[in-house]
Amino acid sequence: MPFSKLGLDKNLLDAVALMGYHAPTAIQEQAIPQVLAGRDVVGCAQTGTGKTAAFVLPILQRITPGGGIKALVVTPTRELAAQIDEVARAASVHTRHRVLAVFGGIPYEPSAKKVKRGVDFLVATPGRLLDMLRRGDVDLSKVEILVLDEADRMLDMGFWPDVKRIIDAVPKKRQNLLFSATMSRSILEVVGDTLHDPVRIQIGEVATPVDAVLQKVYPVVSDQKTDLLVEFLRHHKPERVLVFTRTKHRADRLARVLTKKGINGTTMHSNKTQSQREKALEGFKSGRYTVLVATDIVARGIQVDGISHVVNFDIPVNAEDYVHRIGRTARAGADGIAVSFLTGEEVHELKAIERLIGSEIDRHDLPGFDYSQRRIPASKDVPRRPGKSVWRGGVKAGGRSQLRGYTG
Fold first, then answer.
1. What is the dihedral of CA 245, 297, 273, 242, to 10 degrees?
2. Fewer CB near the terminus (10 Å): N or C of the chain?
3. How confident is the model at residue 147 (pLDDT cuts 50, 70, 90)?
4. Which domains does the chain have, with CATH numbers?
5. Sign, Cα dihedral of 93, 95, 98, 104
């Protein structure tokens, strides 16, 4: 189906052509008509499927320029806010809508002045938006459409009390749009009372990795992780690699080692300034850096095509984060490889991931690497961790899935 069949007006269709979109993705095809019709929408689709344009395009058609902030998008990270801002600006090139993103890491006063001069479409992270509300520098009384982007992630990151305060600051009569790469029962429970007869759109399975991603596990002793990464990069010579670590200090240490070993790498985490993050991301996109070492809190917003490998240097504590991480590769129909380094201390985390995706991940060894110290049990031999029962998104054996607790 072409974009012209979705109900978008000529100004937006012309913008879509300039943006290089040829045909709508599945989430765009299903969501755009529902948003244009004024329905509340709960949209779940994997990373890289065009969720941003799925709500930006119809919102711009529904709101009239002038008279205050009509559309508010709340998103968890600076990088996501910047990406949404970029899409909205490109989509509004032939309209009179004023688009602005406000988030931490950039000077407060210039943003506040721009808001006061007039904004139609505001994108914001929770912390910066609450700062502006407390100081009286933003008026949300005219908001007609509220978007919670990557809602699951905001819940995971502890932003939900802030989001609830933002929800209380906008008019009760409004259109609500909820978009995420995963849709857990927890988020549906906490936002259920804010939604009015929502249309539920699910593209693909809930909380499952992109099919095109080849997943591998490399068991290794903790002290040998860095050596294994260096040897892995030298052996495979990938063009663009995103490496995840659990902490920002670990990311910095790892990047320093890679540099000493002659591998061009840089870091991206919450201790970096906004300009440092943008410089690192641009260097990664341009090919100046082969490796970007990042933490989950910022990497969720990274939108870079051509990432051949995602390496989980540290396996994530939350199984859902694994899905978000590996979704950074295999974007736009490309193939990708996800590699996880497994230590004896991380076997329970891996088993939780395997329960989530419905299958065990094949284990591999790097030829010529010294594994003499390794003693790591197979997944089938790892007992369930006592006293911990976590809902993991409703994935059933065999890879089938459903939204539990939110049916109808």
1. 50
2. C
3. very high
4. 3-202 (3.40.50.300), 213-392 (3.40.50.300)
5. negative
